[in-house]
Design goal:
- There is one protein chain.
- The protein is 67% helix and 5% strand.
- By secondary structure, the protein is mostly helical.
- The chain has 2 domains: 245 residues, no CATH class; 142 residues, D-Maltodextrin-Binding Protein, domain 2 (3-Layer(aba) Sandwich).
- A 4-stranded mixed β-sheet has the order 2-1-3-4, sandwiched between helices.
Length: 410
């Protein structure tokens, strides 16, 4: 009973702190609106993952392959919304357009490209890219390479089929019938080579795409709940500096009950904060937190448990509120950035993606996004286990060290 009396006292004090309440509730709502609207192009639900780009093209070849690469592949129904073609008069103009930022990617199609492909002679299309727009360059290179390889493969197949037909058709077969068969087969194979079957298929991992507003609602929830780790630690440090904790220790209340009360105070506040944030973002911004809200609630509680455990560990490792402010101002921001609250982790280099796994907000954010996209309970076993382990280990370490400190105080 004393544990929850201490916890409820801490929760009431925090909700009476208008400045703290604004930071923990209004700020994440404001940032969700700003980031969700401004950076929605980076997230698959509001806009497709295919970046919009301008391609500067110079073609020395007047053949069918070159024409269809531009008109039927790069300007196909699937790619036209993302790609703007800018035809130029020379390869130098293509290079200049890339250097001046007027084009994102440049394509130079060599002379006799179509003929060389059909006759199985070496040829290649030059793709120029802006060093700062590597993704666009990789996409265009992939499309061009795929198209050229397919055309070359079909050209080789055409030659072999024609040779086989010539050997299999009886000598008594009228020559005009033979020529008609050859033309028909050749036309069909060439049509296959020239067909614009390059498509960009974007399929979310879950059942539903996740919008930018959804992503940043989850990201801000993960980020601002993490601040409770330092808020809870500051509460303990404040009571230590004002000797409130020393007086409390001298009461019949056990040290363990006092520390658990501080832990549950942070836990209850974090859970309530999450519920408020989830409800307001749903009704104000239309954020869908998943088909099964119990999944989001479970992750929210587990993440709050991890954060509350960290608050005990931080309080045990630092000695002043000033140090706690440094942890809040620098440490939490670094963890938030690494965990994907600022920029989606998919845009990180490989090394940072691996480092992100050590942050608790990484597990919470990715779980929320998976739930929003539609996921099974089984996939949540890992993040739940990780978050609960972080909270439990931090609680045990923090409680043990704080018990030693309290004995010295007592």
């Amino acid at each position: 009973m004393k544990v929850f009396m201490i916890a409820s006292k801490d929760v009431v004090i925090r909700f009476r702190d208008r400045k703290g309440l604004m930071l923990m509730v209004l700020m994440p709502l404001l940032l969700t609106a700003i980031l969700g609207a401004a950076l929605s192009d980076m997230i698959g639900g509001d806009q497709n993952l295919m970046p919009k780009m301008t391609i500067s093209v110079y073609s020395e070849d007047n053949g069918e392959l070159a024409r269809r690469l531009v008109d039927d592949v790069l300007q196909s129904e699937e790619l036209k919304p993302y790609i703007k073609i800018k035809m130029l008069a020379s390869s130098k103009e293509v290079l200049t357009s890339i250097e001046n930022g007027k084009g994102d990617v440049g394509i130079i199609i060599p002379k006799d490209f179509s003929q060389n492909v059909f006759e199985n002679r070496a040829t290649k299309i030059e793709v120029l890219q802006d060093p700062g727009k590597e993704t666009a360059g990789q996409i265009v290179s992939s499309i061009v390479t795929s198209y050229t390889n397919r055309a070359a493969a079909v050209a080789i197949a055409s030659k072999e089929v024609i040779e086989d037909l010539a050997m299999s058709i009886p000598a008594t077969q009228p020559s005009n019938d033979f020529q008609q068969i050859i033309r028909q087969v050749t036309a069909e194979l060439q049509e296959a080579a020239l067909s614009a079957n390059a498509k960009v298929i974007e399929q979310p991992i879950g059942k539903n795409p996740v919008s930018g507003m959804q992503y940043y609602a989850a990201a801000m929830a993960a980020m601002f709940l993490l601040f409770n780790a330092t808020v809870g630690a500051k509460s303990i440090l404040n009571e230590r500096s004002t000797e409130t904790l020393a007086r409390l220790i001298n009461t019949p209340t056990s040290r363990g009950s006092i520390l658990l009360g501080k832990f549950f105070g942070t836990l209850i506040y974090s859970v309530v904060q999450f519920f408020i944030f989830m409800g307001v973002t749903h009704f104000l911004y239309g954020v869908n937190w998943g088909e099964d809200l119990l999944q989001s609630i479970l992750i929210g509680i587990c993440y709050s448990f991890a954060v509350s455990g960290l608050s005990m560990a931080i309080a045990a490792m630092i000695s002043s509120e000033t140090a706690a402010d440094v942890v809040a101002g620098i440490g939490v921001q670094i963890l938030s950035a690494l965990g994907g609250s600022m920029v989606p982790i998919s845009m990180f280099p490989e090394l940072l993606r691996k480092i992100a796994h050590i942050t608790p907000n990484y597990w919470a954010l990715n779980s929320f996004v998976d739930i929003m996209g539609g996921t099974s309970w089984q996939t949540l076993l890992m993040p739940v286990s990780v978050l609960m382990s972080i909270g439990l280990v931090s609680l045990l370490i923090g409680t043990w060290r704080l018990q030693l400190i309290r004995r010295r105080i007592g």
